[in-house]
Amino acid sequence: MTRRQHFIVILILGTLSTISPFSVDMYLPGFPAIAKSLDTSIAQVQLSLTAYLVGISVGQLLYGPLIDRFGRKLPLYAGLVLYLLASVGCALSNSIENLIAMRLLQALGGCVGMVAAQALVRDIFPVNQIAQVFSLLTLVIAVSPMIAPTVGGYATVAFGWHSIFIILAAITLLILIGIYFVLPDGKAPDPTLSLRPQAVAGNFWLVLKQPQFLTYMLAGGVAMSAPFAYIAGSPDVFMNIYHVSEQEYGWIFAFLAISILGPNQFNHFLLKRFSSEQVIYTTLIYQSVMGLLTVSLAGMGFLGLYGLIGMLFLFFLGHGMVAPNATALSLAPFTRHAGSAVALMGAFRMGLGALISGAVSVLHDNTAFPMVGVMTLCAVTGLVILLIGQRVIARYQENETPAGAEMAL
């Protein structure tokens, strides 16, 4: 693969991975406008976000076995077409119930991009390059929250909130064209893999029995749920408590995304000297400390608008290094069941994300404390799981042959 082809493939895989994040971030500035237009409350509009996260979680469990059985591209086309049609349905919604239903369908279609993109990385690139490739993918993904809320804010003001979903449909159409003409097929279909529920459950169980996968899926997934607390709480915190405009909220969101972008590329260089295990361990310690400091300052009432933005920026500096390393370490043991592994990992992250976003809404008290408190809990819990899991992995490796895990799968 030439350098130019390498760049184009990563760009397409990155855009595939951003479909769902873009779908979340872009409509956040439109929450007040959607609530007013549909004659409902922002709390009800937040249910459309929860529905989307639930759809992503469930959908990934479906697509994992499908992309292992039928190859990567056929399920990819089917899912993206469903997403495109549901996006148009969102734009035409005239009630909050209809919007919630369309968002659920949109998620069930769009989540295929997340599953297929990560499986294709495992297909196309050598194991020793996976973490670096995921760092580059995260670079593309990190651009999403820098662009999406800003575009969403201006689109809402200029054309109304419906235009957000028309833009999402148009972007998906362009991605479909790129997939057809440029993206490699990846792993071939495997007709020997059964789609019967018992067989699918058996494949998932084989994946879950791998201690390395389980450790980094849990530790990484819990730690990486912190942004869901931010996504759920930030529209209310910034626009209702601190009274910023839709456009200003978009710029704040974009600014905080920079805190993920820089460290993500720093991670690319760190991996030349340190292992992924070392990087993720150090990063989770850092995030836990920053989170506890933020909670303390918020609890004492010392954080104004700019203070809160600054502390969130420092906290999210760690996210750009947790995500690629946790993903790479989770997928490293697998070849044949990479799709199922990706599906389980993604379903866990998004399912937990739905719970986290719901928790922030339940704990709402007209302050930033619930948002930053849940974020900190995610980081600290992720660190605890990592410390326990690394001991389990060490014992497992002492008792297994070097090829034991992959041979079993």
Automatic annotation (TrEMBL):
SUPFAM superfamilies, per the entry: MFS general substrate transporter
Ranges where the Major facilitator superfamily (MFS) profile domain occurs: 9-397
Chief site of localization: membrane
Keywords in alphabetical order: Cell membrane, Membrane, Transmembrane, Transmembrane helix, Transport
CDD domains membership: MFS_MdfA_MDR_like (cd17320)
Pfam families: MFS_1
InterPro entries per record: Efflux_drug-R_Bcr/CmlA (IPR004812), MFS (IPR011701), MFS_dom (IPR020846), MFS_trans_sf (IPR036259)
Keyword Iron-sulfur recorded: no
Membrane-spanning residues: 45-64, 76-94, 100-121, 133-155, 161-183, 213-231, 251-271, 283-306, 312-334, 341-362, 368-388
An example molecular function term from Gene Ontology annotations: xenobiotic transmembrane transporter activity
GO biological process per UniProt: xenobiotic detoxification by transmembrane export across the plasma membrane
Compartment(s) of residence: Cell membrane
Membrane-related topology note: Multi-pass membrane protein
GO cellular component, one term: plasma membrane
PANTHER family, A to Z: MAJOR FACILITATOR SUPERFAMILY, POLYAMINE TRANSPORTER 2-RELATED
Family membership noted in the UniProt record: Belongs to the major facilitator superfamily. Bcr/CmlA family.
Protein name: Bcr/CflA family drug resistance efflux transporter
Naturally occurring in which organism (per UniProt): Arsenicibacter rosenii
Organism phylogeny: Bacteria, Pseudomonadati, Bacteroidota, Cytophagia, Cytophagales
